[in-house]
């Protein structure tokens, strides 16, 4: 972890520990005075949830210089951990009673779990993409794959015309065509495997031993494009996972805030 992330993590972490300690102590004081500490912890937890939502707003306003993204990420992570601890303090147990409370708790746990998974994805997948030494916008990937396929088809056709042999073209039709149609070996790319590379060195290049010098020249170009396509596939998988994760995490977070707001309204109307 870089120093730019570590320092804010430490600072925010110390502040969060101090704040939680103060809330824990104050809730015990309120309890000893026969008061209701859930009022203090509940409102504080709701504010923490709103502050967690600021991170998403900051990402949408990235063009405005309001702090480094790494600092905001550190704040979001520490605030998330603080919210989980505060949720347990507020609840007094891991799982509540009552349907509505269970619905709220279940939603909170799901958004917390998705946040942890998302943080791990954001730490692992971008690093995996930099290893490809290829940069591509996610929305451009289908067009990029189609362009690579067209270049391979053109090379196979030109090879047949120049060499007088259709070995490369037949290998493309029988084997490589499947590979160039769409992103392949998606699970392997996601977990950081090399299934695509092994396939290209095995079945994908099986015809290489039967080629003459002219055909080998074209075949090498085709295999270079096949390797490029494997990098594009990795971007498709990794970028796609990170984008789809947001479509899960953000709606869950909004649902938790909405349920919490309704919970506060009910408490203020019928309890306080």
Main sheet: strands, sense, barrel? none
Portion in helices: over 70%
- C-alpha end-to-end distance: 46 Å
Q: What gyration radius follows from the Cα positions, in whole Å?
A: 27 Å
Count of all domains: 2
Q: Please tell me the overall pLDDT.
A: 91
If you had to describe this structure to a student in words, what would you say it looks like?
The protein is mainly alpha-helical and 272 residues long. The protein has two domains: 3-133 and 241-270, no CATH class; 138-239, no CATH class. 80% of the residues lie in helices and 0% in strands. It has nine helices and no strands. It has helices at 3-32, 37-60, 69-91, 99-130, 141-163, 167-181, 186-191, 195-201, 213-270. Helix 1 (3-32) packs parallel to helix 3 (69-91), helix 4 runs antiparallel to helix 9 and helix 6 runs parallel beside helix 9. The radius of gyration is 27 Å and the shape is elongated. The mean pLDDT is 91.
Main traits of this protein?
272 residues
Compile the SSE list and pairings.
Blueprint: H1 3-32, H2 37-60, H3 69-91, H4 99-130, H5 141-163, H6 167-181, H7 186-191, H8 195-201, H9 213-270
Helix pairs in contact: 1-2, 1-3, 2-3, 2-9, 4-9, 5-6, 5-9, 6-9
Brief summary of the model shown:
The protein has helices spanning 3-32, 37-60, 69-91, 99-130, 141-163, 167-181, 186-191, 195-201, 213-270.
């Amino acid at each position: 972890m870089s120093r730019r992330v570590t320092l804010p993590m430490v600072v925010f972490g110390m502040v969060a520990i101090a704040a939680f300690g103060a809330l824990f102590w104050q809730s015990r004081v309120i309890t000893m005075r026969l008061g209701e500490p859930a009022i203090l912890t509940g409102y504080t937890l709701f504010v923490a949830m709103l502050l967690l939502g600021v991170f998403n707003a900051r990402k949408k306003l990235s063009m405005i210089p309001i702090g480094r993204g790494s600092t905001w990420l550190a704040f979001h992570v520490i605030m998330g951990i603080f919210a989980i601890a505060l949720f347990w303090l507020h609840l007094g147990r891991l799982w509540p009673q009552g349907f509505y409370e269970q619905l709220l708790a279940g939603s909170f746990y799901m958004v917390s779990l998705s946040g942890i998974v998302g943080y791990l994805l954001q730490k692992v997948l971008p690093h995996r993409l930099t290893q490809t030494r290829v940069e591509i916008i996610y929305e451009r990937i289908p067009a990029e794959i189609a362009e690579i396929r067209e270049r391979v088809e053109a090379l196979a056709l030109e090879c047949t015309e120049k060499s007088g042999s259709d070995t490369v073209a037949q290998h493309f039709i029988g084997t490589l065509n499947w590979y160039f149609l769409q992103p392949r070996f998606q699970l392997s790319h996601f977990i950081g495997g090399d299934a695509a590379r092994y396939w290209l060195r095995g079945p994908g290049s099986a015809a290489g031993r039967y080629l003459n010098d002219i055909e080998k020249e074209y075949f090498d170009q085709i295999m270079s494009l096949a390797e490029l396509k494997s990098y594009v596939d990795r971007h498709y998988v990794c970028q796609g996972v990170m984008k789809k994760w947001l479509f899960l995490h953000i709606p869950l977070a909004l649902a938790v805030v909405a349920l919490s707001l309704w919970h506060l309204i009910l408490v203020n109307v019928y309890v306080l």
